[in-house]
Specification:
With about 210 residues, this protein is mainly alpha-helical. Helices cover about 80% and strands about 0% of the residues.
Length: about 210
């Protein structure tokens, strides 16, 4: 019963954030959404902030689990970008993009929320790093591009684009189009023959030394 109650509180906190926003998220509203007494929040989590932090991690685990199989099936950088576009639409429609923006803002004044939001993003970064390591291995960029750094840059870019879309949808679309152009270049590199790939690697080595 304790585990079931904690899960109801975690799900209730996430639903409250999505449906009412962080400004209206309180012990009362979370308890009402979860269908439990307010006292259980403090019994299981100690405070509303600690519950929100746990809910942030819980939500991120759920979202990553939802997309893990699709990520494992991606066969190119172009497919990765297409997946990102589709996920962006799904997550925005579900209210998760707006929730992320509010958590990022709230984390500026709450160390617990900041740590939890960073940990949630870290789950996505780990998945992206694994995918990028696999996909880059098939291109002349293997060994020259850092998958870990690219995963962080990609996550940061998409977080920024998702939040930016709220005030400038056309600008956000242009940013995604620019990333698609880069993915197209990577696809061209993937299709090069062995001699051409060696020439690209040679040029990259010279540029790296310079």
């Amino acid at each position: 019963m304790s585990a079931a109650t904690k899960e109801k509180l975690l799900e209730g906190a996430l639903r409250t954030l999505v449906e009412q926003g962080i400004a209206k998220t309180s012990a009362r509203t979370i308890a009402a959404t979860a269908g439990v007494g307010q006292g259980l929040i403090f019994y299981h989590f100690g405070s509303v902030d600690e519950l929100l932090a746990a809910a942030c991690r819980f939500g991120a685990e759920q979202r990553v689990d939802r997309y893990r199989d699709r990520l494992a099936e991606l066969g190119s950088l172009a497919e990765l970008l297409q997946f990102a576009r589709e996920m962006h639409v799904e997550e925005r429609a579900a209210g998760h993009v707006a929730m992320l923006g509010q958590l990022l803002a709230a984390g500026q004044s709450s160390p617990a929320l900041a740590a939890a939001t960073a940990a949630g993003l870290g789950l996505w970064i780990d998945e992206l790093e694994a995918v990028l390591t696999r996909l880059l291995a098939a291109t002349p960029l293997d060994g020259f591009a850092d998958p870990a750094g690219l995963a962080r840059a990609t996550a940061a870019s998409f977080v920024g684009i998702e939040l930016y879309e709220g005030v400038d949808p056309q600008g956000a679309g242009s940013a995604l189009d620019a990333l698609e152009q880069l993915a197209g270049l990577a696809t061209v590199l993937e299709g090069l023959g062995p001699l051409s790939q060696r020439a690209v690697r040679h040029g990259l080595r010279r540029g790296t030394r310079g």
